[in-house]
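@channel sequence for tomorrow's demo:
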Amino acid sequence: MGWYPMLVQLAGRPVVVIGGGRVAERKVAALLEAEARVRVVSPSLTPALRRWAEEGRVEAVLREAEAADLDGAYLAFVAGGDDEFRARMIAAAKARGVPVNAAGDGEKGDFLTPAVVRRGDLVLAVSVSGASPALAARIAAELKERYGSEYERLSKALRAVRRTVKARVPDPVERRRLLAAAASEAGAAVLLAEEALPEGDELVALLRTLPVSTAVNEREPEDGPRQKPEPGNSPRREPEPGVSPQQEP
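structure tokens (generated this afternoon):
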């Protein structure tokens, strides 16, 4: 064990990916989605990596990586080369205090990348701590079916709800109740039925019509009130093209 799950803010931060094959390509695709500044160091690149470099989305250095390539990196991914080369690059990252992901051998690195399904602000991440990337990918595929594209709209609506409630409802108990009600199954149905979400006091008035959730905590955590899971309360959906789980590590 020893792994701590968290989300990391990478927008605008420099990340080095060592390797130019399919594994590196998957890592880079996820990093671009997170708006990181990506440098890929490898003598060769996949067609996708080459295209992203030509488009200016990544910086490509077409040679074998050196320890100095890791200077100033916020994170590093070692996703190519033989065992000796990979061990040398991992050691170089650690010597510089740069957290490193060792693709294919996660325990040698500092962090793992889970299988991920994204629906706008909703991020579903699955990890089995490197024990079986295939199992993580299978569970992520099931989550992709369970949580359809409407959750992108819902997460956007709930962000607006949270902002409005925090600004216009002074009573903390009522704030928690309204936020929990909005995130409940009944509340989600109401929000998704709105073609244009009301604003300000009109939105607060709408929230006050929602049934009281049974999952109101005494304290609202930083990222919103937690709710007890209600398994099986939404229909399964066909998978959508273009949403592929990333495999750990």
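heads up for whoever presents: The helical segments are 22-33, 47-54, 83-95, 133-146, 150-168, 172-183, 185-193, 200-208.
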